[in-house]
Amino acid sequence: MEAKYALLIDAENVSPKYIEPIMNELSKYGRITYKRIYGDWRDDARGGWMNGILENAITPVQQLRYVAGKNASDSAMIIDAMDILYTGNVDGFCLISSDSDFTRLTDRLREGGMQVIVMGEEKTPKALRKACDIFTVLENLIEEDDTEKTSDDERDTILSKSLMERAIRDIITENQNKGKRTNLGEVGSRLLKLYPDFDVRLYGYSLLSKFLESLPKFELETENGHHVFVKLKSEVAENEDVQTFIKKRVKASGKKGISLGDLGRIVHEKFSDFKTSDYGYSRFYKFVESIESISLKKGENDFIAICKE
């Protein structure tokens, strides 16, 4: 049976830019049955959450701040978490916060037999990181490349093919990192968790397998006549082309090198479909750092790529 999770978000300790990556990440663990977000919604600083709250059907919980400078969300989140724990309706919790004040709550939920996932920013103290079963750094869920971000047009037509392609690619990459193959059925169930209105008939297909075959980045592999797996098409040649191009541009920049931002823009102009995640890297600088003949040094405002040769 699929695991059920309660998602509780401390809006006063996490940026609203993470809402989409949070929902994507949690979809791989199970089904979200409680979705609540806590904060003092009179504060203009909370306004950035509104779109994400509406798009993901999250229930906002008003918690007044009685003392200036104090986080109003803590007590409300803790009370609700304990209430949910005692219902016995969930198998785990996902707490979104960077606040160490939730360390004891995390311990208590685990004592109650719950799996506890915490997602917080880099600033999250070690105590909270070690108290949970799984800790995820939110910054790692956001890819550096601008091309990876969902455009306004794609939000208007939320089930665009390009959006589906990115979601499927992320599912396969996650499994590859764990040494797992991706079953066709898993792709279908994960897409429905992310987008409950997903239906292959929207694209003119009656089968998920036929829809995937229409996407250029994937191929299907049948095993024992009935087990169907989805994998990324080999892109070794393209990877080598990109690396060769980067080496030439960095070498041409001489001893001063070239900023990573400028290099990224040049690469995307040359290779419009290039995405670092297609090669197993979450950030562009990680991809460049992997190229043997190039070194990176910290500049005043950005990393600088320099040719070692």
Q: Mind explaining what this structure looks like?
A:
The chain is an alpha/beta fold and 309 residues long. It has three domains: 4-141, 5'-nuclease (Rossmann fold, 3-Layer(aba) Sandwich), CATH 3.40.50.1010; 146-232, 2-Layer Sandwich (Nucleotidyltransferase, domain 5), CATH 3.30.420; 236-307, Nucleotidyltransferase, domain 5. The chain has helices spanning 19-26, 50-55, 73-87, 103-111, 126-131, 152-156, 161-177, 184-194, 208-213, 236-252, 260-270, 284-289, and strands at 4-10, 31-39, 59-62, 92-96, 115-120, 134-137, 182-183, 218-223, 227-232, 258-259, 294-298, 303-307. Residues 160-234, 238-309 form the HTH OST-type domain. This is NYN domain-containing protein.
Briefly summarize what is shown.
Helix content is 38%, strand content 20%.
Architecture blueprint of SSEs:
Elements: E1 4-10, H1 19-26, E2 31-39, H2 50-55, E3 59-62, H3 73-87, E4 92-96, H4 103-111, E5 115-120, H5 126-131, E6 134-137, H6 152-156, H7 161-177, E7 182-183, H8 184-194, H9 208-213, E8 218-223, E9 227-232, H10 236-252, E10 258-259, H11 260-270, H12 284-289, E11 294-298, E12 303-307
Parallel strand pairs: 1-2, 1-4, 2-3, 4-5, 5-6
Antiparallel strand pairs: 7-9, 8-9, 10-12, 11-12
